[in-house]
């Protein structure tokens, strides 16, 4: 799909990977509709990218009505939707059973799965319906493109990541069945599994932790730059033959047990 | 781990794969504690296997208190717990967007993930805590064994399986991080990904559907027998070196798009 | 890595995926050095792309001396080498034991593995040595980029593909250890696993076979275009953070048993 | 398949995993035919297990005639063949390009692939032909069972393992296409991917290396015992529904880069 002139929803677009993707797709001529809970950041992005081609909507992606209402605003402003980049997500680090005997709260597990997996599905199902109803195919072949964000923790989760890994491998596993379904709607869907990226999610770590992460990454031996994630999003939108695939973006990192 | 004399919880043990596993482990000398919502079936199993070595508890695995209370009953009767076979689960078949425009209800997605993924986690975290507190290691090396049940739909989900695939790949993805954590507790955890098995979950299909499923399975060209699932459970309990692994049990079936 | 002004070796560059990749990288300003056994085609490509920026060398990639000599020619003309796109490969379709009792010749198996796996390794090891000795890092970070070509038959090979699947999964499996090694050389390596592409390798099939292949591909429901492969190569060269990864390029196709 | 009274070929049966598997299957009542290059060890095994139910044949599995002749001896003694456990294999550790500039010899790569991949295929194709011609199905359903031995280096090969990883991932990749083909012959085929096992292949390492390997294995935090491998072989023979699958047997180990 050609990017220029198209409209993309970026969930979690107010920070980190989503923010950089919003910038990048905007610079390529796309309209950007950001769904995020962080109003302050959201408004800043619109200021930065310009309110003619960008819009922010305060949304909790786990809530049916919140997303529905937001999509109405999006359609009112941009008329059509051509894809979603799903970046909204939360991390969590907690052992199932800690050494001191504390047990992983069920609520925490549920919350992580709710946002990362169920929230992602919630947005996609509602947008798929809208794209399906948009009459004309935009490019010769395609009507829409979805990108989901998993994590390499989906494949080799570490100690403390049972909830996060479960939520992200859930995303990995629903990629193919959705690609198979969306074939008749002329929508593609792929997933990016990032390694460790320089974003606010990671930024709070102490300097020594960051050094040790960098050392564990084969090459390039540093965290990923959000621009590199955004660049892969661009390719996944533009290359029509990639579908139903999950791509690791990690400098050849494989997560060790700790 | 040797099976004779040990106590295993079997969730979903009142029907299908869990029922057959209860029978099999019981025949090998284990105490069986069944957690299931189906009281009628549950009571029948206890009758069949004998109430001295078997107990049924009416539990919804998604509910924290329900499982906790049930575990107290289990400990009262059997004193110790050595493992869980997680078979409780539900299926669902629904397109994200149907041809008639109907959209996959968010509730349905949430319910499937709640039971298959979050319910599984709920039971494991509470039992891991109990096993951790049991003083003595039962065998030379091991204090506990967990088996989770995914599905090959975790890997190549079909049209209509986005919720089911998501829930089951979530189980697949949390296998390794939990194995890594449970190492210090001397607990192993593995997952079985069944193909298509002759159970009530499948049994309602019309004869022609069953014939076409059988034809799609390379060899043996028939559905799996619950006994074959139970037999693999036995091996996963007995073979101490299998850990953090997901095993397909499917007669070499790979699910096609429809 | 920026492509303009760099020199890439394309094995199998005289036909199909390699040919289109040669054209594409050339159009982006790269020097192209084609290693192929097909002299006639090879010379045509040089004519098409211009002998100042393109060179053809008649090489059998399985032969140590043939590749070594060829690399000397390459260095004489272009001074430096920055990467290899490994497209040289052969297909084979033969049952292990045919219905009429004929057995898969060992030679055929060996030949397929020799070209697709060992030939690929032969070129990479010799070029890695050259890049390692080139003094200055070309871009800020990277000295070289390798791309190997596997096939989705590496993951779900069909009847008759034991040799081909073995050779291609061999390529898949050596991607990560090579990425880990090449980290110290500042070289990245990734693998593309194409589905079914419109090339001479496929072109000889009858029209009905092609129709049935197309129908099996979810979306886009047609064979891949070599341009789409070349476009992914471009991205793998340009996106510095993708390393040690294998990417399916297949329109969400999963190969069924036949 | 029931093991008692059946005849199994064990390649590499004179040492390590193959030796222990020979012992184990023999103790379960099987006839064992060992193909190995190590005559001294081979003769010892026959002495140990008894020459009525065991036979050794000095074979290089890479050679067509050597294997063919040996199979004639096997049939003469045991009349029928019901399966092969492929354990013959060699390891190799060599960087593609060493720090001192030495390049991985092509011969070494070829030799490793020749033994581990092509040799495995060579034995299987010839035995599949024999089993196919044996008139009666031995059990109700099955005529034969094959087990191949890969390695977890097929999935996350380390520095120095490009040849070994390539050969073992080749084995992984041909598992499914062979299972699909052998379906019509009523033969199952599966692959075991061992982690690190206490065998002569590993035994030569210094004590510190062994300690560091053990520490890297989550649980049980020690090398695998050949008995555990043999035990999984037993299960793969006995459980009719496991087919086309690759099973990691590694105590939840994931290989890090070094
Ligand atoms: N940064 C990394 O290293 C890394 C690695 C692997 C995967 N990821 C994934 O990438 C995605 C983006 O991560 P990031 O590093 O940019 O994080 P981030 O915290 O910088 O940004 C995430 C954004 O999502 C928003 N958000 C969270 N919950 C939401 C909800 N319920 N509804 C709407 N918006 C919500 C937050 O407000 C925030 O703006 C996440 O899904 C994360 O799991 C990140
Ligand atoms: N049968 C198959 O072909 C197949 C294939 C792949 C995976 N599986 C999985 O195997 C497992 C067992 O399946 P089955 O075929 O035996 O199904 P089944 O329906 O025969 O048995 C499932 C049991 O789980 C119980 N259960 C459901 N929800 C529960 C809850 N919230 N709390 C407690 N108990 C609950 C049910 O009452 C039932 O007794 C499931 O997880 C299923 O997804 C089955
Ligand atoms: N076309 C497809 O559908 C498809 C699908 C999956 C993978 N692939 C892989 O993509 C690669 C390119 O395939 P293609 O379709 O372009 O095939 P192609 O036959 O059009 O081109 C392959 C080229 O490799 C050359 N070659 C073969 N053996 C060689 C040797 N020993 N030394 C040097 N050159 C040699 C041939 O001369 C030919 O020019 C192959 O590795 C193939 O296995 C192709
Ligand atoms: N030991 C481990 O930690 C480990 C780990 C992963 C995989 N494996 C694999 O398991 C298999 C068995 O390994 P092991 O540790 O028992 O090794 P081992 O060296 O103890 O035994 C291998 C046997 O194979 C025989 N052999 C080698 N080449 C042969 C040939 N061309 N023809 C016939 N026989 C040949 C040897 O003579 C030897 O008896 C190998 O394939 C190995 O790659 C072993």
TrEMBL record, chains A, B, C, D:
<protein>
    <recommendedName>
        <fullName>3-hydroxyacyl-CoA dehydrogenase</fullName>
    </recommendedName>
</protein>
<dbReference type="Pfam" id="PF00106">
    <property type="entry name" value="adh_short"/>
</dbReference>
<dbReference type="InterPro" id="IPR036291">
    <property type="entry name" value="NAD(P)-bd_dom_sf"/>
</dbReference>
<comment type="similarity">
    <text>Belongs to the short-chain dehydrogenases/reductases (SDR) family.</text>
</comment>
<keyword id="KW-0560">Oxidoreductase</keyword>
<dbReference type="GO" id="GO:0016491">
    <property type="term" value="F:oxidoreductase activity"/>
</dbReference>
<dbReference type="InterPro" id="IPR002347">
    <property type="entry name" value="SDR_fam"/>
</dbReference>
<dbReference type="InterPro" id="IPR020904">
    <property type="entry name" value="Sc_DH/Rdtase_CS"/>
</dbReference>
